[in-house]
Specification:
The complex is a heterodimer of chains A (about 300) and B (about 280).
Chain A: H1 2-12, H2 16-20, H3 23-55, H4 63-70, H5 81-92, H6 103-134, H7 136-149, H8 154-167, H9 173-196, H10 201-209, H11 214-249, H12 258-267, H13 271-302
Helix pairs in contact in A: 3-4, 5-13, 6-7, 6-9, 6-11, 6-12, 8-9, 9-11, 11-13, 12-13
Chain B: H1 4-7, E1 23-36, E2 39-52, E3 56-60, H2 67-74, E4 82-87, H3 92-97, E5 101-104, H4 116-127, H5 131-144, H6 160-173, E6 178-182, H7 190-207, E7 210-215, H8 218-224, E8 227-232, E9 237-243, H9 258-276
Parallel strand pairs in B: 3-7, 3-8, 5-6, 6-7
Antiparallel strand pairs in B: 1-2, 1-4, 8-9
Helix pairs in contact in B: 4-5, 4-6, 5-6, 8-9
The chains are: A mainly alpha (about 300), B alpha/beta (about 280).
Chain lengths: ~300, ~280
């Protein structure tokens, strides 16, 4: 009865279906953000535009022209979304990947060191956690250093890492990757310590009744238990790795990479270049975190941990 | 049989010295005190108990009487603070290392990332058995608990009773002569519990294993056991040991018989007396 009564009223409003799910509300929020961005762009770029008019001795410029001019400046204080979109389009699709002006080329450089650093950091984090849960001595001696390492501003220690590694003859990708490692090992280590310690008492007792060795308990109980913790930590670690790779490019005067794009953009007041690099970095981080989420879903499904 | 106080002295002290070959568990003057922030807790005090090969022994008592702790001492999950205990003539630790027993916990404690077959395989992997031997034992023990066909299911896909049966199959797969069971059916409803009790009894008759079984259900204890150990709390101690004269072959109908009710009555009286003793 109710379904027949509901059906016509639903068909009357073509947006009812859209708004009933999450897609509709999400679109509304995104549009609101873009709208606010445009208003901000107009407001922030207006002073410079008025200066320009004054110098050109133009008065009584109609408001509509002012708006369109503020959204079309070459070096706006706040670029409009469509300007960034055009800039990204021009530097990705319309440029060869090998070109020094290709954003894909720069992203690739940053990405490779972020991924290398992430892999090393994740491995290191897991090994540290395994050591810490098995030895009170290791826990007491390592934990303070691990925490202290994260209180140092990365911008301060990044040049040191690069200088020290250069002095011992390591250059290229690895020094930058080490900065990503420095940032990404921490969430993995902390998350894995928690994860490896999370088995219930009854599960540990069971292993005890089997007289299982520590290694067997680690492989057959602790590690499977820690898998959900690992993925959560890896998501944080991945985003931190990308930040580390970008930050690693800043103080070292790197000529390539997203960090280098940010740096040269700020030298020459190329706000469009800065913003497109920022958007690209956010896009990369988002995609990588989503990718880990996907792997997590598949892994947990394979392990029978999701219903 | 009738004198409650006399039951405590039924075991002769000189029996301890010459451990008979079919004595599985020998406990003498055993105490266990937990040191807590609020002072010592006497979980077990002056326990004397002998369990022979093929016995089905139930530990029954109110919560806090130490029945689970006693089982955990046998399993080397807790260390006694005084007295002596041997399992198969050796220390509990050695017995554990020899994989002398299978332990069934209150909860099924199946690993959620393993299928039922792989959960049963867990102790076998730890023991280092070959793949073919593992397969053979999985099939045999799952059949024993009527879970054939559920090998590839994950624990959450099974009912509580089936999960507990799987955990029994896992304990049996080790092929121990001694089965330690800590309120294995406590969380199940009575219909499932009756059914599993009957199955467990058949299993016991078939395999001639020794079983130590913790419960707080009088009918369950009387129905299953050849020997019922009544414990009372503060400090946890043995109040009465009842040797059951019910036939080994039993069906659920036996619960209506006068002999059954007589033993159940004695257990109930023991529980009551053990409690008022304290108040």
């Amino acid at each position: 009865m109710t379904s027949t009564a509901l059906a016509p009223s639903r068909s009357l409003n073509p947006f009812a279906g859209l708004m009933s799910g999450t897609t509709g509300p999400v679109i509304v929020v995104v549009l609101a953000i873009i709208g606010a961005w445009y208003i901000g762009a107009v407001a922030l770029n207006t002073p410079f535009q008025l200066d320009t008019y004054e110098r050109a001795d133009r008065t009584n410029v109609p408001f509509s022209e002012l708006v369109s001019d503020t959204l079309a400046q070459e070096r706006p204080v706040l670029p409009a979304p469509h300007q960034i979109a055009v800039e990204i389009w021009e530097t990705t699709v319309e440029k060869k990947i090998t070109s020094k002006r290709s954003l894909i080329y720069h992203s690739g450089i940053t990405l490779s060191s972020a991924l290398l650093g992430f892999l090393i950091g994740t491995t290191l984090g897991i090994l540290l956690a395994v050591g810490i849960i098995h030895s009170r001595v290791l826990e007491k001696s390592l934990m303070p250093w691990i925490i202290a390492s994260q209180t140092i501003p990365i911008l301060a220690i990044a040049p040191m890492i690069i200088v020290v590694l250069n002095a011992v003859g390591i250059s290229g990708l690895l020094p930058k990757a080490m900065i990503s490692t420095y940032l990404s090992f921490f969430p993995v280590a902390v998350g894995m310590v928690k994860g490896l310690r999370s088995p219930e008492v009854i599960d540990m007792d069971l292993m005890h009744t089997y007289s299982a060795t520590r290694v067997q308990t680690l492989w057959k109980l602790r590690l499977p238990y820690a898998v959900p913790y690992l993925f959560t930590s890896m998501k944080i670690g991945m985003a931190a790795s990308l930040v580390g790779a970008i930050v690693g490019e800043l103080p070292t005067g790197a000529v390539a990479g997203l960090g280098a794009r940010l740096l040269s953009g700020s030298y020459y007041g190329q706000t469009l270049q800065i913003w497109s690099a920022l958007i690209m970095a956010a896009f990369l981080a988002g995609s990588l975190v989503a990718l880990i989420g996907l792997v997590e879903k598949l892994a947990l499904k394979r392990m029978g941990m999701t219903r | 049989m009738t004198a409650l106080a006399g039951a405590k002295d039924t075991e002769m002290v000189d029996n301890h010295k010459s451990a008979s070959p079919d004595r599985v568990i020998d406990i003498e003057k055993l105490s266990l005190t937990f040191e807590t922030g609020d002072g010592p807790v006497h979980a077990l005090s002056d326990i004397d108990l002998k369990i022979e090969q093929g016995d089905f022994v139930s530990f029954i008592g109110p919560s806090g009487c130490g029945k689970t702790t006693l089982l955990r001492v046998i399993a080397d999950l807790e260390k006694p603070t005084a007295g002596s205990i041997t399992v198969n003539g050796v220390s509990p630790e050695e017995a554990r290392l020899n994989r002398a027993y299978g332990y069934v916990f209150q909860a099924a404690a199946l690993y959620s990332w393993r299928t039922i077959a792989n959960n049963v395989a867990l102790p076998l992997e730890i023991m280092g058995l070959s793949r073919s031997e593992r397969q053979e034992r999985i099939a045999r023990n799952l059949e024993l608990v009527n879970l054939t066909g559920f090998e590839k299911k994950y624990p959450w896909q099974l009912s509580g009773g089936m999960q507990q049966r799987a955990s029994i199959a896992r304990a049996l797969a080790v092929e121990p002569d001694l089965l330690l069971m800590d309120e294995p059916f406590g969380a199940l409803d009575e219909i499932v519990r009756d059914h599993l009790n009957e199955q467990l009894l058949q299993l016991w008759a078939k395999t001639s294993k020794t079983v130590a079984f913790v419960t707080h259900s009088i009918p369950e204890a009387v129905f299953l056991s050849t020997k019922i150990v009544v414990l009372c709390p503060r400090p946890g101690r043995i109040y009465d040991v009842i040797e059951s004269d019910l036939p080994r072959e039993r069906t659920l109908d036996i619960r209506e018989s006068p002999e059954f009710l007589k033993i159940a009555h004695r257990v109930r009286e023991g529980l009551k007396a053990g409690h008022s003793y304290e108040d």
